[in-house]
Amino acid sequence: MMLLVLDLDNTLIDRDQAYASFMQQWLKEKAFMSKQQIEAYLPQIMRIDNHGYNEPLEACEKILRVIEVNKISAEQLWQDSQQLIDYIMPSDSLKRMLDRLALRYQLALLTNGSSSRQRKKIHNATLAPHFDYIGVSEEIGTSKPSTCAFTHILDAMGASAREAISVGDNIHNDIEPATKIGMKTIHIPPHSSHYSSHADITLNHIFELEQHLL
Fold first, then answer.
1. What is the reported pTM?
2. How far apart are CA 3 and CA 183, in angstroms?
3. How many angstroms separate the Cα of 158 from the Cα of each of 90, 110, 139?
4. What whole-number distance in Å separates Cα of residue 146 and Cα of residue 161?
5. pLDDT value of residue 192
6. Which residues of 90-128 are buried (b: 16+ CB within 10 A; e: fewer)?
7. What is the distance between the alpha carbons of residues 187 and 210, in angstroms, rounded to a whole number?
């Protein structure tokens, strides 16, 4: 049985939606903005955030300059933004798709981050029951883009690289290291500008995954 190794942030969970929901509440409570002001600023804030790819403190500094809030530090905004986890919601459609994939594939989750944060995300999205194995970088002692993160999952699942497919949004973390060790790859970029020619398949959305695999 083939193994699917799936990424978490911006792949299985909509991190952008969670961040947008957090920022709307934060701008209301901390920056005292009206609904109209929030609607005006939010698109620019989301561009600065860049799906969480940018250096966090630098992004927070830019956001504070844009919204002209001087009494809050970038460090405080960064700490506050950790609350985006609370805005992660389960997707019944996603879980049903994972159940169908599980009939033909072994499913593993590989994610970078601290155990407490990533496990809480997985819990809030109610994803744990759908996976045969979950690898969190802090727990397994290695992180993407190291190929060791992928070989750890392969060893844990008793699979070879040629029997596995990496699925994720990040070229550097999910596609390139998996390709190096001989895995097939499926790239689901958050935006067209992040497309990678290195992936075997590129999809527009996670829900296109099923039609390419079943």
1. 0.90
2. 10
3. 29, 15, 19
4. 15
5. 56
6. ebeebeebbeebeeebbbbbbbbeeeeebbebbebbebe
7. 14
- Rounded to an integer, what distance in angstroms lies between the CA atom of residue 6 and that of residue 166? 6
Is residue 101 within 8 A of residue 88, CB to CB? The reply is no
β-sheet bridge partners, residue 185: 166
Q: Which amino acid is at 93?
A: S
Distances (CA, A) of 110 to 6, 60, 65, 94: 6, 27, 35, 17
Strand partners, 1: none
The C-alpha atoms of residue 203 and residue 189 are separated, in whole angstroms, by 7
Token digits of residue 38 = 């929030």
Cα separation values, 132 from 9, 49, 77, 116, 128, Å: 18, 32, 36, 20, 9
DSSP string, 175-211: IHHHHHTT-EEEE--SSGGG--TTSSEE-SSGGGHHH
CA atoms 9, 15, 16, 22: torsion sign = negative
Render each residue's pLDDT in the chain as its tens digit; 214 residues.
899 999 999 999 999 999 999 999 999 999 999 999 999 999 999 999 999 888 999 999 999 999 998 889 999 999 999 999 999 999 999 999 999 999 999 999 999 999 999 999 999 999 999 999 999 999 999 999 999 999 999 999 999 999 999 999 999 999 999 999 999 999 999 875 556 568 999 999 999 999 988 7
Half-sphere exposure of 186 (CA within 13 A, CB side): 21
